[in-house]
Write a structure and sequence with these properties.
Elements (H helix, E strand, L loop, with lengths): L2 H11 L6 E3 L6 H14 L1 E6 L7 H12 L2 E6 L2 E5 L12
Parallel strand pairs: 1-2
Antiparallel strand pairs: 2-4, 3-4
C-alpha cells in the first residue's frame, strides 16, 4: 500500500465511528470473527483498545492485521484503523 492510498483511507476513516472494542480479555476468537465480518461488510473499520486491555493499540493492530490478512492504516492513542478489500463486493477503490 502506498502512502497516497494510506492517506486516502485515513481521510475516509476520520469521520467514522469506532465499531470494534478490544477489552480486558485481549484478542479472542470472537473478536477476530467480529472484525472479519466488519471488514467484509465495510472494508475499512475503526477499532479501540479499552483501558483494562493487556495489549497496546499497536500490538492489537499488528495481531489483528496478521490474523485477518488486513492492512494497517493508522494508529493514534488507543484507536486504530485497518483495511481489507471485500472479496464479494469491493467498494473502496484504491488508485
Amino acid at each position: 500500500m502506498t502512502s497516497k492510498q494510506r492517506a486516502y483511507l485515513r481521510s475516509m476513516a476520520n469521520t467514522m465511528d469506532t465499531i470494534l472494542y478490544i477489552g480486558k480479555d485481549g484478542i479472542v476468537p470472537g473478536t477476530i470473527k467480529q472484525a472479519s465480518d466488519a471488514l467484509e461488510a465495510r472494508e475499512l473499520i475503526k477499532c479501540a483498545v479499552q483501558q483494562g486491555c493487556p495489549l497496546s493499540a499497536k500490538e492489537a493492530l499488528a495481531e489483528l492485521c496478521q490474523q485477518l490478512e488486513a492492512e494497517p492504516v493508522q494508529c493514534i492513542g488507543r484507536r486504530f484503523v485497518m483495511y481489507r478489500p471485500s472479496t464479494e463486493n469491493p467498494r473502496i477503490v484504491l488508485e
